[in-house]
Amino acid sequence: MSTEENPAAAPRSLAEALRGRDDVSLAALLRSRPDLITPVPTDLTQLATRAGTRASVVRALERLDRFTLQTAQALAIASEPATYDELLGLMAGDDGDPAVSAALPHALGTLREQALVWGGDGRLRLVRTARELLAPSPQHPSPTGLGPTVREAGAGISPGRVQEILATAGLPSTHDSVSALDALTGLFDDPERMSALLDQAPSESVEVLERLVWGPPYGQVTADPAPRLRWLLDRGLLLPTAPGTVVLPREVALRLRAGRAHRTTEPVPPPVEAAAAHRPQTVDATAAGQAYTALATVEELLKDWHEGGPGVLRAGGLSVRDLKRTAVALDVPEPVAAFWVELAYAAGLLASDGEADERYAATPAYDEWLERPAGERWARLATAWLAATRTPGLVGERDAKDRTLSALGPGLDRSSAPEVRHRVLALLAGLPEGAAPDAGSVLARLRWERPPRADRTGGGHGGGTSSPYARRTPAHPAEQARGAAARAGGSGVPGYPADGASAAGGDDDLRSRLARWTLAEAEMLGVTGRGALSSHGRALIGAPPAPRHADPRTESTGPGDKLPVHHRRAPAPSALSPAGQATAAAAAARLLDPLLPEPLDHVLLQADLTAVAPGPLERPLADMLGVLADVESKGGATVYRFTPASVRRALDAGRSAADLHAFLAAHSRTPVPQPLAYLVDDVARRHGHLRVGAASSYVRCDDDAVLNEILADKRAAGLGLRRLAPTVLAARTDPAALLEGLRAMGFAPAAESAEGDVLIARADAYRTPPRTPPEPVPDGPPVPDDTLLAAAIRAVRAGDLASTAPRKPVGGAAGGVGPGELPRTSAADTLATLQAAVLTNGTLWIGYVNAEGAASQRVIAPIRVEGGFVTAYDHTADEVRAYPLHRITGVAELAE
Questions:
Q1: Is the pLDDT of residue 209 over 80?
Q2: CA 361/CA 108 separation, integer angstroms
Q3: Which of 221, 659, 761, 824 has its CA 20 to 30 A from that of 667?
């Protein structure tokens, strides 16, 4: 690649480099760094300034892949400006690396696109803020493991000592320290002279250099260094930086490394390998079974809370005790129960009721959700999971204030969660159809695409062990390992901790944990089956059809069966707009629907007061049977048990004995057993014989002997009963407590209204007010769409034209207006110039102050001047506007 470049034509600043870009290049910059467009900058100079701020540069660096980040780190230690050949030498070494040579143009192009590097191949410049962040220093070591240059390290050495080093190294003396350090640098940069110098070094001294060459480059020495260290110090191969501390100069380290800035470069992303291969039909069938289980689990959760779920903690969220109860009810581990609770909350099916005694319950959207086809219901859950920033895997851990994170509580949002979920599923989509990934290769790929913080700040470089003659300085706190060991035990769900504790060790990072949780949650939700992405999961993320295996008969034989699949980096599906996501969800639902079992319209009644449902039931049948009987066991077939309490529950819901007999006869493939018919008739005969209402509350019955029996029962003492009439008893307790007390005594009372009518108690009567699902917490500003990008670029271009257009001197002055200054002319001169421009169709540069007092520069083409306003086409805003004359500070004609 040519490095020759005309210096006169080279940009002198980042702003000039941005002015040389076309609209497509500017759009790519704003799309990759959306924080630069919030708010829209007034011109390209402000855009360049914003692109160089520390917060923006840090965000951009955090989104670079490992090789591109290594390229930026190499530029941070190169000369400024650097040439492409110098950068290639730092990345590929003196011997060259074909893979690095092939990948470097793309990495450099990415840095240029994101405005982290500017200038041509002959004058490459890293943005100053990025250089300050990536350049090595004692306080912030570089991942390259390099130290300061000879000039930087020798700045504090006395001139006499510098001349002694020159003489010992065999170089002629100079007149000053600057030229002496330059001569020493030239020695270390010359491969032949450097090799000759090292050939003279004792083997012990060479061993010291080998221990420091890959970093950290700092070591500690005593006041009287050993001969092997003295030999290095006398020739400048080690330079003192502080009392008792020496450093290996950057030039020496690069010579010893054969020119490489990094011990290991990674120009090619690690492939995602398949751990096993399955038939696509097997994957889809398994995923469909998991999807059906997910729907059933969410329904069971909200049915369990149908009369109002557990209370809300004062700080928000679900208590540990309530989470345990929910886990027992769902027959799952607590971390998995937290996942289902959070999923229902993210989908808008669950919320708090907002009452004084706040508790959780289903929302009205849950009833609408139940009426939808199964595929649509699953798509709603899966779409909510993909976009949610709430992370149930964190439940049970502690926040920065040492408070336990609870399900449905605050502190669970992680803004990077949606991006990680999409990326993990995209990597699975790049595998052949039916291939289940090796989790380790997925994590390695994610670490390459977004290196952990230790790799960006210097905690990831290697080095030798310390020695008695060159002890390393203590590691910087940023290099210390973080985190604690995971708690013991297993939840039965890969990727989930046993009790909500952290699953990450000290070397792990949040993205890796999110990736493991994604693989586990996708399997539970039915997005994947047997670890492989299903066809409806592929449609959910808008991925293209998967490649096929070369041998479609390949099938895994066990968990140890490994099938390596090396492939090129699969392009991630582009981010879907809300309309695109809705289309993808509908497509996924259409693919899933045929795979789900058809609902049945019958059960099998048995003589032991049970009913067997051999599969999923139709919605009306399942709802009615859920009221009439209790679920005894679940699995491939669901077993329901009829009890007096369950039959009474159906009668409380407004059904009569005849209705129940007709229902059982219509939906049973076997004759209604006689014990079940007797049970219904017996409970119905006694149901409603007693009536309970509000006095505070009362009991009335036509049979006064029954009331006498109640009064004589010792268990009724806590109800505060007293007789008002032969057939009426009054109570101090409320009607609900009175109902429960009488039922505990073996009676079957019915509630009645103030008018004396029997109240119908619906099992699903309690709902929260309408609630919207929780909004995801964004990871920075959203990526702008094409319309916003086009408008922003047009505004920036127009503003830049207004600020950089050449102008004639204002008011006859010899010089023009300085940069950033507004033109100043008298009111008469302003009016005359504007009127003249109307006649000549001229273009003017004006200074304008709006009603809020904000000053700006604009380029306008006046159309007419009347009534104290000038109507003109504003090139800055690309529209016709009217400006009050009294707010125009001055005008100037644009130069030819």
A1: yes
A2: 54
A3: 761
**Residue partners of 757: CB distance under 8 A and separation at least 6:** none
- Measured CA to CA, the distance from residue 424 to residue 367 in angstroms comes to 33
Whether 142 and 150 have beta carbons less than 8 Å apart is answered as no
The pTM for the full model equals 0.77
Structure tokens at 181: 């350090």
Q: Where are the alpha helices (DSSP H) in 213-267?
A: 227-234, 250-256
Helix axes 23-32, 786-804, angle to 10 degrees: 120
Query: DSSP characters for 310-361?
Result: PBPPTTSS--HHHHHHHHHHHTS-HHHHHHHHHHHHHTTSEEE--SSS-BEE
Helix H or strand E segment including 796: helix 786-804
Q: What is the pLDDT of residue 552?
A: 36
β-pair type (638-641, 245-247): unpaired
Distance CA(713)–CA(691), nearest Å, equals 18
Spatial CA neighbour of 141 closest among 466, 389, 455 = 455
Which amino acid type is present at position 17?
A
Strands 274-277 and 435-437: antiparallel
Burial class, 571, CB count within 10 angstroms (exposed 0-12 / middle 13-18 / buried 19+): exposed
Under 8 Å between Cβ of 363 and 351: yes
> What per-residue confidence (pLDDT) applies to 458?
54
CA distance 198 to 827: 78
Query: Using an 8 Å Cβ cutoff, are 737 and 744 in contact?
Result: no
Report how far apart, in Å, the C-alpha atoms of 765 and of each of 22, 303, 347, 653, 714 are: 62, 11, 21, 10, 34
Residue 77: DSSP 8-state = H
Measured CA to CA, the distance from residue 865 to residue 882 in angstroms comes to 9
Residues 6+ apart with CB under 8 A from 184: 150, 154, 162, 165, 166, 169, 171, 236
Q: What is the pLDDT of residues 415-456, one digit of tens each?
A: 899 999 999 999 999 999 999 999 999 999 999 999 887 666
Provide the pLDDT for residue 387. Answer: 92
**3-state helix vs strand vs coil in the chain, percent to 5:** 45, 15, 40
Sheet with 610-613, side-by-side order of all strands? 604-606, 610-613, 638-641, 630-633
As to burial, measured by CB atoms within 10 angstroms (0-12 exposed, 13-18 middle, 19+ buried), residue 430 is: buried
**761-780 CB burial, b ≥16 within 10 A, e <16:** eeebeebbeebebbebeeee
Taking the C-alpha atoms of 881, 882, 886 and 887 in order, what is their torsion angle to the nearest 10 degrees? -20
635 or 542, higher pLDDT: 542
- Name the residue with tokens 């076997």: 670
Place of tokens 């306003």: 869
CA distances from 851 to 856, 872, 886 (A): 12, 19, 11
Q: pLDDT digit string (tens) for 329-380? A: 888 999 999 999 999 999 999 999 888 888 999 999 998 998 899 999 999 9
Q: Give first-to-last CA distance, the chain, whole Å.
A: 39
287 with 526: CB under 8 angstroms? Answer: yes
- Give dist(CA 420, CA 514) in Å, integer: 7
265 φ, ψ (degrees, to nearest 5) = -100, 150
* HEC sequence for 272-286: CCEEEECCHHHHHHH
Q: Is 423 helix (H, G, I), strand (E, B) or coil?
A: helix
Beta bridge partners of 709: none
Q: What are phi and psi of 744, to 5 degrees?
A: -65, -25
Give 6-60 as a 3 state SS string. CCCCCCCCHHHHHHCCCHHHHHHHHHHCHHHHCCCCCCHHHHHHHHCCHHHHHHH
If one counts every other C-beta atom within 10 angstroms of the C-beta of residue 395, the result is: 30
pLDDT digits (tens, 9 = 90+) for 632-677: 887 768 899 999 988 988 888 888 888 899 999 999 888 999 999 8
